[in-house]
Amino acid sequence: MATLEGEVRLKQTQKLLWTLVALLAVTVAGIAWWKAGGVFRPKTAATATIPVCDLQVGPCTASLPDGRSASLALLPLPVVALKPITVHLKLSGIQAQRVVVDFTGVNMDMGFNRFPLKRAGVGYAGKAILPVCTRSRMEWKAEVLVQTEHGLLAFPFRFDTIRP
Fold first, then answer.
1. pTM for this one?
2. Torsional sign, CA 108, 109, 110, 115
3. CB 47 within 8 A of CB 87
4. Which DSSP symbol is given to 70?
5. Which of 11, 13, 114, 125 could form a disulfide with 120 if both were Cys (CB 3.0 to 4.6 A apart)?
C-alpha cells in the first residue's frame, strides 16, 4: 500500500514539475518574442504615404511631407516569385546609415522577407527573392526602411505578382 501511495505521489510530483517546465518555457518564449518585436515591427520616426504607381511598370517615388523621398525600382520586370530580383533605391534629402527593404504579403502572411541594400553609385542596391504564393495573384507591400541619425524612415510601396 505504501509503495502504491509513493508511486502516486511521485507521478503527481513529476506532473507538477513538467507543468512548471512548460510554463517556464512559454514565459521565456513570450519574453523573447516581446523583446524581438522591435526587429519585426520597428518604430518609425516618419512614414511616407503609399504612392499611386505600379512597380511592375517602372520606378515609383514615395515622399514624406517635408519633401524627403525614396525612389524604388525592381528589376527584371515583371517581378515573379522565386526569381531573383535586383532592388534599386535612390534617396533624396536623406543621409542613410542603413537601408533595408521588407517585402510582406498584404492579404497573406508570407513570412519574414527583409533584404539589406548597399551603397551602389548614387543610390543603393541589393538582391531579393519573393516566396511563392498559392494564389495566382499576390499583393505585396515593399517597405523601404532607412535608418538615419534622427530615426527610422519608412517608405511603403505596393505591387502585385501573377503566377505564370
1. 0.75
2. positive
3. no
4. E
5. 125
Report the amino acid identity of residue 95: Q
C-alpha cell of 54? 505600379
CA-closest candidate to residue 103, choices 76, 74, 134, 123: 74
Task: Give me the DSSP letters along 27-39.
Answer: HHHHHHHHHHHHH
Q: How far apart are CA 128 and CA 160, in angstroms?
A: 16
Task: Tell me if 155 sits within 8 A of 100, measured CB to CB.
Answer: no
pLDDT per position as a tens digit, 119-147: 999 999 999 999 987 888 999 999 999 99
Cα 28–Cα 31–Cα 34 angle in degrees, nearest 5: 150
Q: Can you tell me whether residue 9 is helix, strand or coil?
A: helix
- Per DSSP, what are the bridge partners of residue 69? 63, 92
